[in-house]
Amino acid sequence: MGLAFWRGAWGRVAVLLAACALGPTVRTARAQILGHARTVAGVSYTIRVGGPPRVGAGMIASIAAQPAHYVANAVFAAGRGRLDVVEGGVESLFGKGDYVLFDSTDLVIVHPATREFVVVPHDAGDKNMDQLEAMGMKATIGDVKVTIDSLPGADTVAGHATRHFRMVTAFTMTIEAGTLHQRLATESVTDYWVAMVPGLPGNPLLRANGFSGTPVSSGMFRELSSRVDSAAARMGSAVALRTSTSSRLMQGPGASVQMQQTSEVSDLRNRSVDETLLILPAGYKQGVLPGTDAPVVGATDAGAKWRTIPK
User: Fold this and answer.
1) Where are the strands (E) in the chain, listed by range?
2) Which end of the chain is less congested by CB atoms within 10 angstroms, N or C?
3) 3-class DSSP state for residue 50?
4) What is the percentage of the chain residues whose pLDDT exceeds 90?
5) Farthest-apart Cα atoms in the chain, separation
6) pLDDT at 64 over 90
7) Which DSSP string do the residues of 77-111 spell out, in sequence order?
8) Residue 97 phi, psi dihedral angles, 5° rounding
9) Taking phi first (over 0 means left), then psi (-120 to 50 degrees means alpha), and beta for anything else, what does residue 128 get?
10) What confidence score (pLDDT) does residue 195 get?
């Protein structure tokens, strides 16, 4: 909910995490295709994401996304990572058996069952709003508020001492379409337990500041994302090993929805990573991310860099 709710697919995926190594048979097949197999020093971990069902009433409650629920294992090495979902998933984006390739700027969702991959654009939320405006709807953001505070206490998460931060974001959205004039208000409170973890400074899926290192929104969310970046800078390059978010979206009296989402990392350890896990399999084609337009025919291969071993 909150910022992630309105930014669409990127916001929902920005809280992902995970990937475990594949079995020897798959590794051997990939090694044969590439002509060699090499392991590099890296880090692995498990992530659990969940939350109770949304609670609310009115039209806004019926269209709000349900909290994500999944368990995944991850490896991260040579500036690139892979997430394999072992339980649950995120509606319309990925599920058990799918995985995500990522680096400091990009996310690619891979569907082995269909031999397809989809690229998650950073500006998915802006593009969705552009599509609504093309249909005659006008939306504007106002009353933007973003604060962050350091809280006392230092829990140990995944074997690391953490610092506790709390970020509060709030804004209103006004939607106009002909005679329709609707005003929505949203507020999110997120607690972060962050730590400096060697080998993970560039990991966007664990980074406390989900916008750092990615293009700032150029559309209606520009001010909001810029303020979030500025506030989150207080956490530096630490990664979030545990998060807890409570969000409210209010349409008016009797029409609101509340949602909670948590995530926590465990089994964090150093390990060797087979670099062939960090690329797209041969023959996989680009698919369409739900809610976006089809890939442009003749466009540059969006998966090109993911077909080669990271340097």
Assistant:
1) 39-50, 55-57, 69-77, 80-90, 94-95, 99-102, 107-111, 116-119, 138-151, 156-157, 160-161, 163-177, 180-195, 239-252, 255-274, 285-286
2) C
3) strand
4) 37
5) 64
6) no
7) ETTEEEEEEEEEEETTTEETT-EEEE-SS-EEEEE
8) 95, -20
9) alpha
10) 92
- Bridge partners of residue 245, in order along the sequence: 190, 261
Residue 212 — pLDDT band, cuts 50, 70, 90? very low
CA torsion angle 122 124 126 132 (round to 10)? 170
Whole-structure pTM value: 0.78
Beta carbons within 8 Å of 290's beta carbon, 6+ residues apart: 9, 92, 93
Residues 6 or more apart in contact with residue 243 via CB below 8 angstroms: 15, 190, 191, 192, 193, 261, 262, 263, 264
Using an 8 Å Cβ cutoff, are 205 and 169 in contact? Answer: no
DSSP 8-state symbol, 21:
P
**Tokens 């400074």 correspond to what residue?**
201
